[in-house]
């Protein structure tokens, strides 16, 4: 019955349904999601740590209230992207907390993670996928930044909604999962990246980059493709935020540094970032920084 009700919510009255549903007491919504969670585990099996596919084409993520910053950041990023674009990202349906846990419910993007399809896609399919991702990132970068009272200024480096940054590379530097920043300027952000050790001159990143909306974890597990290798959407926006234009590129390459990387994946990276800026200098500086810190 619950699934039939929620499935009906994908029709023409879906926005009204979710608007009203989010006004139902939190304890009722959490109980409903608990039923769907158990049904999802029964039908689909366990999905991942603190993530579960649900019936009715949905996903739920959960964590402790004390560490729900990345989850809130992802929910805010999805709201922002859906408000200002037609980019294919999960639809943020609900965010609810009790005294112990926070829960985020989103729509599911049908398809396969790129990592599951990479070896079976042809070079031509990967090239076309790279061009689609290139267009996606160009539109993402054009997203307007909302500056509201109490949030950081326009040029600040922040999380998706203007607060602190939730990025795994920054957590490795700070040694904590607490938010870092926000940073009023790009220079303040670069200073934070060098906090572990006094940097030599060749580890000082140049400034002057535009600050743009960035996914921050563009990996094969977060790129969803259809059966023909076409881009279906991008998921997992926990590390997203407003970063210098090079950050998406160096974050992508950071994920390739610790293992053998096939040439086809490097070629895909070239297609993805073609025309979005030449950041080889920034990558070289960061590699020297990574070698000293990580």
TrEMBL record:
Domain Aminoglycoside phosphotransferase: 70-262
One matching Pfam family: APH
InterPro entries: AGP_Transferase, Aminoglycoside_PTrfase, Kinase-like_dom_sf
Region forming the signal peptide: 1-16
Keywords recorded for this protein, A-Z: Signal
Record bears the keyword Metal-binding: no
Record-given protein name: Aminoglycoside phosphotransferase domain-containing protein
């Amino acid at each position: 019955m619950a699934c039939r009700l929620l499935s009906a919510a994908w029709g023409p009255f879906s926005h009204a349904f979710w608007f009203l549903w989010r006004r139902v007491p939190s304890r009722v919504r959490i109980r409903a999601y608990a039923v769907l969670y158990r049904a999802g585990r029964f039908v689909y099996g366990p999905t991942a740590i603190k993530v579960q596919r649900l019936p009715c084409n949905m996903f739920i993520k959960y964590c402790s209230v004390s560490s729900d910053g990345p989850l809130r950041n992802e929910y805010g990023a999805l709201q922002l992207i859906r408000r200002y674009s037609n980019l294919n990202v999960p639809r943020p349906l609900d965010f609810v907390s009790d005294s112990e846990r926070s829960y985020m419910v989103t729509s599911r993007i049908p398809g396969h993670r790129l990592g599951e399809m990479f070896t079976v896609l042809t070079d031509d399919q990967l090239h076309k996928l790279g061009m689609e991702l290139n267009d996606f990132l160009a539109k993402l970068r054009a997203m307007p930044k909302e500056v509201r009272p109490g949030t950081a200024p326009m040029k600040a480096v922040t999380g998706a909604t203007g607060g602190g940054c939730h990025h795994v590379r920054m957590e490795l530097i700070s040694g904590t999962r607490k938010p870092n920043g926000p940073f009023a300027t790009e220079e303040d952000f670069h200073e934070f990246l060098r906090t572990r050790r006094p940097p030599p001159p060749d580890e000082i990143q140049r400034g002057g980059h535009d600050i743009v909306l960035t996914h921050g974890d563009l990996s094969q597990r977060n790129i969803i493709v259809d059966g023909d290798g076409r881009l279906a959407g991008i998921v997992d926006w926990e590390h997203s935020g407003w970063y210098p234009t090079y950050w998406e590129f160096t974050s992508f390459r950071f994920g390739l540094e610790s293992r053998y990387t096939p040439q086809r994946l490097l070629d895909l990276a070239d297609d993805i970032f073609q025309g979005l800026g030449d950041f080889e200098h920034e990558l070289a500086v960061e590699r020297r920084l990574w070698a000293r810190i990580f």
